[in-house]
Fold this sequence. Notes:
Arc Repressor Mutant, subunit A, 8-stranded mixed sheet, transcription regulation, WH-like_DNA-bd_sf, DNA binding
Amino acid sequence: xxxxxxxxxxxxxxxxxxxxxxxxxxxxxxxxxxxxxxxxxxxxxxxxxxxxxxxxxxxxxxxxxxxxxxxxxxxxxxxxxxxxxxxxxxxxxxxxxxxxxxxxxxxxxxxxxxxxxxxxxxxxxxxxxxxxxxxxxxxxxxxxxxxxxxxxxxxxxxxxxxxxxxxxxxxxxxxxxxxxxxxxxxxxxxxxxxxxxxxxxxxxxxxxxxxxxxxxxxxxxxxxxxxxxxxxxxxxxxxxxxxxxxxxxxxxxxxxxxxxxxxxxxxxxxxxxxxxxxxxxxxxxxxxxxxxxxxxxxxxxxxxxxxxxxxxxxxx
Length: 316
């Protein structure tokens, strides 16, 4: 198996046709076809078939594509690393980001990073862990920032906690229960969570059961923070937000954070990356900028910024 064959395979998957893949690679369609056909001949198994809509991957082709993507992306990262050490500007850093981070700490970290590595292109993927996990697995993402995954993922990924924060129950201003003082008063609410699917069980177990309360009747999941915010602001649904998100100006102006007797939830944000693949110099620089941004925010003379950072506990 050769690298140019993997590149052709990945390009065909991304482009959806041989002609478009060849154009993306800067080669002729015949050369792209030859690369994949030689790979099939070497392995004695069909990988790609033609159909009326273009091309389709066989089961074997789909299995190999996962590894081909990882190899192609890792080679690209290796080239970026060498270019950086030669003093050449360029390269790309791809990061998965839990939605609420983009509204809180991300801008400060990006500003610091851009000053230190101005030639590096940043690419962000918004999504919870279950959304970004396939991109981590195939190497599209360098790392992800968000809640750590279950123990079943430890064999595949490293999960390094970087900070923790408390959370609060939020609802729209003017909600009939906006002055509630206990979770007991909220048991009949409908809930909307911008968390992973496992969060439905977590909110019932960690938030209600540990306080000896009955479970909510309905817990909805939103894979978009915008969707969650829209529903909270315009319905009687309640949610749970980490405090840094509660402290953003938009949330303060549109939502009510309840002062409850019970502790609601403690959110840990981790760096999630493929096990056995070291972080690039650019990735290490970005994480250093994130840590520095948090320290600077805590000590800021601007009360608006201090509000954003005051609830954080650094774990690195």
